[in-house]
Amino acid sequence: MKQRYILPALLLLCAACQQEEWAQPEADSSDAIRFAAPTITVEELTRSTFHDAFPTGGTFGVLGYCVPYQRGSDTEMDWASGSANWGNKSGNAFPDVFFNQAVTYNGSACTYDYNNSGGPRKWYNTTQNQEAISPDNYRYTFFAYYPMDDFTVESPTNATTRGVPKLTFTMPFAETGDVATTTLDDKETPDAMVSVVYNHLRTTGNVRFNFSHIMTGLGFAVNNYNYGGDDETVTVKRVTLSGNFTRSITIDFSKNTNEDGFYTYSGTYPGTYVIYNNEEGFAIAPNSSVPLIGDKHLLLLSNATDGTYFGENVKVHVEYTYRGEAKNASAERPTQFQPRAGVRYTAQLNFVGETFALNFIAAEDEFWEDGGDSDVSIQ
Length: 379
Fold this sequence. Notes:
elongated; Immunoglobulin-like; Fimbrillin family protein; Mfa-like_1; Mfa-like_1_N; mainly beta; seven-stranded mixed β-sheet
């Protein structure tokens, strides 16, 4: 079997920094920490973009680090280690630069108000920080998360506490409820993203975040593979996805990206997503297709660590008519289908004669199976 490894978006975090126009006035532009217009990673293989450009008006949170504490102290800063790489000082690091700083993108530039100062924060310098040692060589590391209000900073707990970031994103749905009677509004789910810029020098210029998706996209297509007359038409009236869905993801940056515990999942939320619902139905003629019924992609968390992925007892349910007879069909996620973060998939609802089959494929019509190219179906 041909092997293909599409890494989760969390493993593709990168730092890309360049100069950009700053809309917020500042007396000495080279002294202020500025954020360039953020970008978003787009995986070419799977077209795995939900937001393909950072949304205008969007606000992301930032944790910023530079000068660590002295070893064994929670108050004295180790000014000589400001120039050390992140890996050499992270154990004593605290968010001395930014703690849960709100930054807003207005469509052309990023702005923020540091500590109600009316403007941005300055880089370390010998004028304001006489203890600083060669501050132009200081290396800054920044962690960003969007949307800011949908993330919880688990660690560190405040701006003076030692700790590498641990961030939790939680879906906007309650843990309690009934699967059948709780209707889930997919519009409430944000396109959650994270980014990291490691070891940034002041002389490099503006800090640019390249965000990566942590969600999985899922759309639904209908294929009528029957050949014949109008009596072979399939009319789809309702499509739903229901179950107990994965609710939270925690990202622990104290661990390596390939280490157990780098990301963990917890909790579920019950309910039903209504993909399509129309009493008259959508008629799909023989030998034709509907590429995206309901005109939507759900954004879901996929728990690959324990193998539950979208959640527990998650099922696709279809109500349709064929040859004048009302029919119902349901299918669970095939065990071979193992959805990844940052990838957009299509659930294909296939009708062949009296048979209903469910296929999951990545974008660009690439059938997805664990590590290979293969049709995944369930009847």
